[in-house]
Amino acid sequence: AQSVTQPDIHITVSEGASLELRCNYSYGATPYLFWYVQSPGQGLQLLLKYFSGDTLVQGIKGFEAEFKRSQSSFNLRKPSVHWSDAAEYFCAVVLAYSGAGSYQLTFGKGTKLSVIP
Amino acid sequence: DGGITQSPKYLFRKEGQNVTLSCEQNLNHDAMYWYRQDPGQGLRLIYYSQIVNDFQKGDIAEGYSVSREKKESFPLTVTSAQKNPTAFYLCASSIWAGGVYEQYFGPGTRLTVT
Question: Of B94, B100, B108, which is closest to A43 when you measure between CB atoms?
């Protein structure tokens, strides 16, 4: 069955340090991949997406992610973390295309990021 | 401003009561979704709707019901048959953007049933 794995439940980094959040997927076809961020008690905001082309994609808030087909990974990175980046991050993959205007996302269980001042 | 509205933000109910969560969008998106979020579980799809008057069950539809009478609205009813209704509920809608469908999320409703 298709799945998304985020191996790290909780990561703590110092402000100004670099960040990498891991995401691995299990999917037979070429995946559509997404990273979302969620602040406590809030909805999810799309950071970036990959569906084809350049395997290094740029997103909002200075984030980037690299798709590696050979490793079935789509890791999220940021060169220098700010205190405001503290949140929960979710990786997601398209499970099935179900018609125009709709598709089903499968989410990982999330990685909570804490930032030390 | 365009967006997705969920109301109320916090909802409290007694066990055995049905409760309806509101979701409205003014983004002109065709598809809408309901997710349930529990700590450490990620998001799980309850129902989704591609067009008005049509909807499909997601992974955890038991104990829930929906309707889609208008493009802008996709209310979710949590029935008394749902065994563990206390959770954070997120509504989303999607649009085709740059070769892929993007989902946009509302702010969520936290339901507590005692």
Answer: B108
Is the predicted pLDDT of residue A110 greater than 80, yes or no?
A: yes
User: Could you report the per-residue pLDDT of A49-84, keeping only the tens digit for each?
Assistant: 998 788 999 999 999 999 999 999 999 999 999 999
Pairwise CB contact (< 8 Å): B4 & A43: yes
Is residue A92 within 8 A of residue A109, CB to CB? The reply is no
Return the closest-CA partner of residue A88 out of A115, A106, A65. Answer: A115
Query: Which chain A residue has its CA at the smallest distance from B43's CA?
Result: A107
> How far apart, in whole angstroms, are the C-alpha atoms of residue A82 and residue B48?
36
DSSP chain B: ---EEEE-SEEEE-TT--EEEEEEE-S--SEEEEEEE-TTS-EEEEEEESSTT--EE-TT-TTEEE--SBTTB--EEE-TT-S---EEEEEEEEEEETTEEEEEE---EEEEE-
- Determine whether the interchain pair A51/B100 forms a contact, defined as Cβ–Cβ distance below 8 Å: yes
* Nearest alpha carbon to residue A34 among A93, A85, A101: A93
Give residues with Cβ within 8 angstroms of A29, minimum separation 6. Answer: none
pLDDT in tens, B13-66: 999 999 999 999 999 998 899 999 998 888 999 999 988 999 999 989 999 999
Whether residue B94 and residue A101 make contact (CB cut-off 8 A), yes or no, is yes
Scanning the structure block, which residue is given the tokens 């933000």?
Answer: B9
